[in-house]
Amino acid sequence: MDAASSPATDLKAACVQAAHDFIAAHGIERLSLRDVARQLGVSHQAPYRHYPSKDHLLAAVIARCFREFAAFLDARPECASAEDDLAALGQQYMLYASSHALEYRLMFGTPWPEAAADSELIRDAVHSFNVLRKVLARLHGKGRGAREKIDQDAMFIWSTMHGYVTIAQCNVMRHLQLAPKVDKNVAPHIFDMVARAMASRMAQ
Q: Does the chain have fewer CB atoms within 10 Å around its N or its C terminus?
């Protein structure tokens, strides 16, 4: 039997899915390996063969979110220009956040467990961040100081997008007594301001 479809590998993946489903239904605080085992109909010791603790399992859940997040970003429409590609990436980012709210909160609203240092989580998180870096590299090229500029701009863009998504997900805007139509036009305005900022940056 191929290792990819062996019972042990199946159980490892099943534990991640069961943990994800449990978090969706009951929250992270109540997650336990015993409950995951009960949900899968296996012995309470079975998940420990792959995950020494709840934190290791949680790290695996978040790592899978990052892998799927990166794949979602990579699935955006291809654009000839770097500027259009950056805009398409922003649209894809917001689409993911709105359609995968739980996964987004797990990645960016949950303190990483200590077990993250011993898991694939860091690697997968860096991979998803590199999607943005690659687009910015099309703008900055490989000249002197390009890496620093790329990382600076990546943090600026990510912070801007994340800030808006976080506010939108907590529904605070509906209570701010904003001027008519402002709430519906916030996202396009943010994209426009980011584009302006990047155009000014590239003109320097």
A: C
CATH superfamily of 62-203: Tetracycline Repressor, domain 2 (1.10.357.10)
d(CA 195, CA 204): 15
Specify the DSSP element, H or E, that contains 30: none
pTM of the entire predicted model: 0.88
Task: For residues 157 and 129, give the distance between their C-alpha atoms in angstroms, rounded to a whole number.
Answer: 11
What residue spans define the domains of the chain? 1-51, 62-203
Token pair of 60, please?
Answer: 């695996």
| Count of CB atoms situated within 10 Å of the CB of 126 | 12
Q: How does pLDDT run across 31-42, given as a tens digit for each residue?
A: 999 999 999 999
